[in-house]
Amino acid sequence: MMPLRTYIDTARARIGRVATTAGSAALTAGLFTDAVTLPGLTAAVGTALLGVGFSPRLMAAHEKVKPVAMMVYASPHAGMAAILVAERVASGGVARLMEAGAATAWTAGVWWIRPASLAKRIAKPWPANEQIQEAAPAVAQELADPAARWWAENVAREGGIAPGTRLVATQRIDADRKAAVIAATTPGEPVPEISITRLSALTDIPEDKISIDPIPGRGAGLRMLTIGKKRGASADTWTEIARSALPGVELVETNTYELKELR
Hints:
- 21% of the residues are buried.
- Helix content is 57%, strand content 11%.
- The chain contains ten helices and four strands; from the N terminus they run ααααααααββαββα.
- It has helices at 4-30, 37-53, 56-59, 66-89, 93-113, 115-123, 127-144, 146-155, 196-203, 235-245; strands spanning 165-172, 177-184, 210-214, 222-228.
- The longest helix is centred in the first third of the chain and has 27 residues, at 4-30.
- Strand 1 and strand 2 form a beta hairpin.
């Protein structure tokens, strides 16, 4: 079964097609008789006012796009009214040919462009606002972490030890060790090399208790910072650190390398 929204959109599309056909019929009849002018004008103005006034999406549109969306929505109604008036006022062979051409162009344009649907797409909430609303809780949570705040103010600042980085997770592993995940702030860029000597001087933690290592199964855009008594980097150790400091990371492989710390 399709979602209710799909049925509503389908019904609106079909009603729009019926309205376009009725408008085209009124414009065609107006070429030969004045009897349809007043009913046609009333219908055009009435449906425009009802559509604009009772459309929740148009009413809730952002102030910067609401006038544009409303004008787009009302454009076929205004065009139909103008052609009906022209048919009533002007007569003669050339005038009738021009009016017939205008009626044909109106029908084709409204049928193809579908101004009502276009107006609602214009009035749709801005994606940027949605992204900001979705990202706001995560940003607030990250800034609420004192370690992440301290890193941003002292380590990741311009001219600091590791500009272009941030802490995305911190966790105490056991009584002797803490772990944190360092991430590059620019997508697609690796975490830059970080001087353990400078970090030791800034934090007043002995160099032999600070290590920065790759995270098994993840790319160079993330690094694991471990502070405390060092232990052998066994698979169990990495699994424990990944589970605590970076939930959702799955250990897929471990390797042993000779890591040369920057001095």
